[in-house]
């Protein structure tokens, strides 16, 4: 009988990482120490390289990739239910992601449930013509890598580092994030403001990206909400936010600023910006986009279920908290 083969364990992967990354041992030496073929070690390192702090082999990500490959070994029928298939296709075409579709099915039971992974597999293996409806439209699926951590400098304005913990962890509503999206030629812009708990979003077409236009847009949109639903606004360090003190005075709220080059610290509005770009791609001239169309996009986003909201919509969560929509 031939030699019995067993898959590498997480413990062995940790040893490989330590010996290969820190001790700089050769592949053959590591194979000898683990009583494994050097080709097994070589294949393990090459197929599981991750882009973390530096591109190299990491044991925990390697274990995740291994688990993913094992799950893919068994091919199951995808979207065999005709009602579910049509539901998935219709929602993809209006901009919903597979995760939103799956989560909404689980919440409402409108059709037979299917997980988001099966939807992705259906698209990439059986219905590639639907790839164009995915957010990134990648021709091939890509693995997600951990993002790198950064050390931040303290902002000269009221820093986001001074923002209370209850705002950071989204335990109370009424705290907003503001950002701008530039038009082709950078003459016009959109102001986008998003509430951190409900993900309620407002979009305003601006005649310029100057501070006065941004200030007026924020006051006009946020003044429609109850006073206790506008407690703070978090900005980046762009010059268009120079009027934040006047916004604070008018709305009786506070302002916080992200650290320089740390736009990801206001991730809620950055995520919504990405959704808006699906309707208004980079290079769009906002002069050709009507205020009515901007309002339609805002309504679509606030009617779109979110995974972070338990697959409810911002409108639904806002109604639960405030009992009425802004006029």
UniProtKB/TrEMBL annotation:
SUPFAM superfamilies: Ribonuclease H-like. The keyword S-adenosyl-L-methionine does not apply. It holds the Pfam family HTH_38. The keyword Nucleus does not apply. One of its GO terms (molecular function) is nucleic acid binding. One of its GO terms (biological process) is DNA integration. Gene3D superfamilies: Ribonuclease H-like superfamily/Ribonuclease H (3.30.420.10). Keywords: DNA recombination. Residues 169-322 form the Integrase catalytic domain. One of its GO terms (cellular component) is cytosol. PANTHER family: TRANSPOSASE, TRANSPOSASE INSI FOR INSERTION SEQUENCE ELEMENT IS30A-RELATED. NCBIfam families: transpos_IS30. This is Integrase, catalytic region. The lineage of its organism: Bacteria, Pseudomonadati, Pseudomonadota, Gammaproteobacteria, Alteromonadales.
């Amino acid at each position: 009988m031939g030699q019995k083969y067993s898959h590498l364990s997480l413990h062995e992967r940790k040893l490989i990482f330590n010996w290969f990354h820190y001790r700089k041992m050769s592949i053959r030496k590591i194979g000898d120490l683990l009583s494994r073929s050097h080709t097994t070690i070589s294949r393990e390192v090459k197929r599981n390289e991750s882009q973390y702090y530096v591109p190299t082999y990491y044991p925990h990500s390697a274990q995740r990739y291994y688990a993913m490959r094992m799950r893919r070994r068994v091919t199951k029928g995808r979207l065999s239910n005709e009602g579910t298939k049509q539901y998935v296709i219709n929602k993809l075409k209006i901009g919903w992601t597979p995760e939103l579709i799956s989560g909404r099915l689980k919440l409402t039971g409108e059709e037979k449930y299917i997980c988001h992974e099966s939807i992705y597999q259906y698209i990439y293996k059986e219905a590639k013509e639907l790839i164009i409806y995915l957010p990134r439209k990648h021709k091939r699926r890509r693995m997600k890598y951990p993002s790198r951590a950064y050390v931040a400098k303290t902002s000269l304005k009221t820093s986001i580092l001074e923002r209370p913990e209850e705002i950071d962890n989204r335990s109370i509503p009424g705290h907003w994030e503001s950002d701008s999206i530039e038009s082709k030629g950078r003459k016009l812009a959109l102001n986008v403001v998003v509430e951190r708990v409900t993900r309620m979003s407002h979009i305003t077409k601006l005649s310029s990206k100057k501070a006065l236009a941004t200030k007026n847009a924020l006051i006009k949109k946020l003044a429609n909400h109850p006073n206790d639903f506008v407690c703070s606004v978090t900005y980046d360090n762009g010059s268009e936010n120079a009027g934040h003190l006047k916004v604070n005075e008018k709305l009786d709220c506070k302002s916080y600023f992200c650290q320089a080059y740390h736009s990801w610290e206001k991730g809620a509005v950055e995520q919504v910006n990405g959704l808006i770009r699906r309707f208004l791609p980079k290079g769009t001239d906002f002069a050709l986009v009507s205020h009515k169309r901007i309002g339609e996009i805002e309504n679509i986003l606030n009617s779109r279920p979110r995974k972070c909201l338990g697959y409810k919509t911002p409108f639904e969560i806002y109604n639960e908290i405030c009992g009425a929509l802004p006029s």
